[in-house]
Design brief:
Keywords: Isomerase. By secondary structure, the chain is mainly alpha-helical. The protein is 82% helix and 0% strand. The protein binds the ligand C=C(O[C@@H]1C=C(C(=O)O)C=C[C@H]1O)C(=O)O.
């Protein structure tokens, strides 16, 4: 990065500092979400409820797509991200149910 104009370098660093803060916030928010979903997993296992709840997921996806649209984020991306997270949660719930 030696030949970069110092003003450009400073702007790049300012933006990357914000990106790093946002990434840290995402990790903390995901950790909190997984703490909640782990509790849901134990509750479901105790009461013999199935790990996945497709109707709840459909509501969450519809809500998140609408929120994404109003935030000018690609709704398809928001849906993919939520599905990715939920798949991991369901995997955890299956592990809890089988333990
Ligand atoms: C957490 C739950 O379990 C599963 C995971 C979900 C999630 O990560 O939001 C949503 C629905 C379920 O498929 C739940 O039923 O609320």
């Amino acid at each position: 990065m030696n030949g970069i104009d110092p003003a450009v370098q400073a702007e790049l660093q300012r933006l990357r500092d914000s990106i790093d803060n946002i990434d840290a916030a995402l990790v903390h928010m995901l950790a909190e979400r997984f703490k909640c979903t782990q509790q849901v997993g134990h509750l479901k296992a105790r009461h013999a409820l199935p790990p996945a709840d497709p109707s709840r997921e459909a509501q969450q996806i519809a809500r998140l797509r609408a929120l994404a649209e109003s935030a000018k984020l690609d709704p398809a991306f928001a849906e993919k991200l939520l599905n990715f997270i939920i798949a991991e949660v369901i995997r955890h719930h299956e592990t809890i149910a089988n333990s």
